[in-house]
Amino acid sequence: MNRTVSVVVIVVLLVALGAYFLNGNRRAGDDAAGEMAALTALDAKLTALEADVANIAAYEGIWENELQYTRGLDRHDETLIRNVFWADAKASYGTLVEIETLPSWANESHANSAAHQHHVTGLSLDIDGDTAHEEGDILYSSDMARNKTLDTEGVPTPGRTVVGSFATLGTGRYVNRYERRDGDWRLLVHEYVHDVSLRLQAVDLCATGCLGRWDPSDISYLRPLQSLSVEERRRRSEEGKMPHAAVGNSGERR
Amino acid sequence: MALTGALLALMTASAPDAQQGTVSTAALIASLESRLARLDPQVQYLKNRREIFDVSKTYTRGADRHDKDLVRNAFWPEATISFGTPMSRDEYVEWEEGALRGYAAHQHHITGQTIDVSGDTAHVESYVIYFLVPRDRSADEVGPATLGRAMTTEKTRLGSGRYIERWERRNGEWKILLREYVEDLSLLGDTVDLCTGGGCLGSWDRNDLSYVRPLEYQTPEQRRARGDANRQPHNPQ
Predict the structure, then answer these.
(1) If DSSP codes are grouped into helix, strand and coil, which group holds residue B8?
(2) SS3 of A131, please?
(3) Which of A135, A205, A223, B235 has its CA 20 to 30 A from that of A194?
(4) What pLDDT is attached to residue B141?
(5) How far apart are CA A6 and CA A69, in angstroms?
């Protein structure tokens, strides 16, 4: 009898204990499930945010690549020009230009001009995974005749416009295919489409001051940038009036 | 005993579940944290570029609207600005506004920027195109200059150059500390009197349409009234 009572008591105790633990586990399970649901919601939000940021970052990355290209052209910086393309890229301004020769080809043809500047004013983008089709609106002037009568051996510098000459203000489009490799967007196909040409009179910039350079002595390369004194500006402008490397250290190129 | 065994089995069987939940929650938190950490520099990069571009655009807008406060706010108080001769911020704000007052119309476009950020310093090269329309001053009277009355016998200048700048971030705010302007090319074209025909709606004060909040549709009469005000070369208020 006593034995039976003991068994019953033990069974009741065990059932109570079991019920207690089971309930506790269920509560812990409920808490964990709640936490998990909150984290899963956060995860989904973060995934959406990552996609948004990736989209904006792709736009900025491609925009920056376009600007590095035009900066490279305007400063005759071969490294900058080359780095915006993948090695297997194809570029055409009428006929195919090999990427290896594009920087020197561009610099040589731009050196016929006393001054040139290429503005990318806006982009339209169509991104699909690691490929993007992009159209960049371009406004430029690049055929202001350069007075070459004082040219000597060496690297040309911008400056001296032929008095009375005309220049073209052109607008057109870079029609591009971009590819992303290891997170990096670069050009794979680059086609130039010309849209508008406007004929305007060229002003000789060096009559007042021509500070720009076609090499890393241009002040945009200075780190940290320091204020130029009036004398330093004048000295640089005087150098700019000599179109070739006869003056200063403009022969240094990277 | 069988019952006891079953109960014990039940109790221990539910335990790993809870434990596994804890482990995967921690793993999920760690992964969320590391993804956020990766996102952070990307957003910071985009934010820097956006903020610097915004301040630059505010500067050109200020110059074109003759809004000295907008121009001033783009620079730190001790900034140095040079278009040939180094100037302090306050000298520059006055000089530029005075120089631009000499034209019938002008507009500055910042088209693109290459930005090189290092900590709280940024080196920025902004490409700029601007138009300067000569003004017929023969009817100038006393008072602030207004946009309009082009001198069609003189050429309009299209200039193209670069603002080469050092920026600094203070308390999270980017502003220009140093600006050297480099003019790269300059072209001349025939001048058109913008006040004939379509009308010259712009103004060189906060009456300009771009300040209107909320912007409302302008009737042709309202447009005409704004244009007519600009045909009076000086506004005596």
Answers:
(1) helix
(2) strand
(3) A205
(4) 74
(5) 90
Which is nearest to A92 in space by CA: A190, A186, A172?
A190
Distances from the Cα of A78 to the Cα of A39, A54, A120, A203, B125, angstroms:
50, 30, 19, 28, 18
CA distance linking residue A61 with residue A44, whole number of Å? 25
Q: What is the pTM of this model?
A: 0.85
B19 touches A29 (CB < 8 A): no
pLDDT in tens, A166-216: 999 999 999 999 999 999 999 999 999 999 999 999 998 887 788 999 989
* Cα–Cα distances in angstroms (integers) from residue B16 to residues A120, B21, B193, in the given order: 61, 8, 84
pLDDT at A14 over 80: no
Is the omega angle on the peptide bond into residue B214 within 30 degrees of 0, that is, cis?
A: yes
Q: Nearest C-alpha of chain B: how many angstroms from A87? A: 23
B 149-208 residues inside an 8 A Cβ radius of A: 155, 157-158, 160-162, 164-166, 178, 180, 182-189
pLDDT of residue A62 exceeding 90: yes
Q: What DSSP designation does B150 have?
A: B
Closest CA to B175 of B79, B84, B45: B79
* Chain A closest-CA separation from residue B36 CA (Å): 8
What span, in angstroms and rounded, lies between the C-alpha atoms of A245 and B173? 42
CB A12 within 8 A of CB B3: no
Taking contacts as CB-CB distances below 8 angstroms, the residues of chain B near A14 are: 3-4, 7
Least trusted range by pLDDT, from A82-86, A250-254, B49-53, B202-206: A250-254
| Beta carbons within 8 Å of A129's beta carbon, 6+ residues apart | none
Strands (E), B171-204: 173-189
A84 in Cβ contact with A102 (< 8 Å): no
Name residue, tokens 């009375």: A164
